[in-house]
Amino acid sequence: MAKPYGQARTAPQRPQILVVDDTEGIRTYLKSLLSGKGYDVLLAESASLALDRVASNDPIAAMLLDVMLPETNGLDVLREAKRLRPELPVVMLSVVGRAATIVDAMNLGASDYLSKPFEEPELEAAMARALGEAEREDVAAPQQALEASGAGDKAACWTSDKMVRIHRILEQVSDADVTVLVHGESGVGKEVISREVHRLSTRSHGPFVKVNCAALPEELLESELFGYERGAFTGASNRKAGKFELANKGTIFLDEIGEMSAGLQAKFLQVLQDSEFTRLGGQADVRVDVRVVVATNRNLEEMVAKGLFREDLYYRINVVNVFVPPLRERKEEIPGLVSHFLNRYCDQYRREPLRISDSLMEALVQYSWPGNIRELENMIKRVVVLQNEDSIRDELTLPPPVAEDPDTAPEELVDALDLTELTSGTLSLREIGRRAARGAEREALRRVLYQTNWNRKRAAKILDVSYKTLLVKIKECGLTD
What we know:
This protein is an alpha/beta fold. It folds into four domains: 16-133, 3-Layer(aba) Sandwich (Rossmann fold), CATH 3.40.50; 154-323, P-loop containing nucleotide triphosphate hydrolases (Rossmann fold, 3-Layer(aba) Sandwich), CATH 3.40.50.300; 327-398, Helicase, Ruva Protein, domain 3; 411-476, no CATH class. Helix content is 47%, strand content 12%. The chain has 21 helices and twelve strands. The strands form three sheets. It has a five-stranded parallel β-sheet, with helices on both faces. A five-stranded parallel β-sheet has the order 7-8-11-6-12. Strands 9-10 form a two-stranded antiparallel sheet. Helix 3 links the parallel strand 3 (60-66) and strand 4. The protein is globular, with a radius of gyration of 28 Å.
């Protein structure tokens, strides 16, 4: 019989585990198993008894919680338990391994999720993780695995608590073969997440094919995704397989899915529903076996509400929803990322190994990172190439480019006026105007590209130029993302 809640208890010598399951056989089995592994075990057959235990003074180290309970859903118990004891580790148990339920549980704070029936080593590993006994290994494992897979460009991003939690979600849904929607600001590492989905899946030995939906105009994107038959259009001299065919038995990653046109959205929906499509200019259906991962930095729910994105497609791709937080919320990753990029670009550009100063590291940690990991990578690349910290030190104290004074004279105009003085006015007014126009054009391009997160199609529309003209101008002005 439990002691009154207000009465002091002597803490047990062994960690105390609360097992919550409405099936007596499962409770008995888990008590026997956990007792043999060195734990004290408390039992509860209902949600109300479980929450009474959580609200009491029982020194519970962790809870094993069944998703299916007679009184209420286990997720509701999880939510209330986390409200009562936020620090309490909870491992969910269920015979229903639905991906959406797994994600909901992890987002509510569950430390792990086991599908019944499970093996003893699985339970042991889950309890070790829940109690912090394997904390260091948990952080290192995904990072090492990613590096070993050859996709470790940003492996240091797995070191923060938020990214470790994301990795556990990916592990839980790895064999579910469902569509994954990865969203977050530009530059946060969505491709790294997508590649890890592939690496953890049963398709890891198959191809991983990436398509950037914002990088190509609509007509080219359709042929890139679905391929075409000979004679489908001018220049189609031979049949070409699309990216979906190339990704057969593997994973296709569609980046910037929010930029896909309405017509392509309909054809993409058909692939998700029927696993088949028709090449441009073709008659026969092509069947594929592909896992789909999509990513976006746009709010798809708002786009659906505005009629800019198909509602049926949104629900098709939003099976497992992974939000990647911005770098400003994961600042503990910055030292590791800096070290990684220093080593990478010192090797690439054949520079001597570098170590940045403590003052610069402090500035990097304090910076807000509007461009996230991509911005950090470009800054470190600049330090390596120029072998000079001053090249980025001033930038760390300035607002992002979009907030700069619009009246600031373009660099080319200042150079032209300076040259006029040096040549005693022999530089013609026409030449000054030409250089000023080039500078203004470059500045306009830079600002619009920054505002659109380097979405070239949107930038071309804003600037009222063709997509091809924009690409030429970007190259002429020497702009890079």
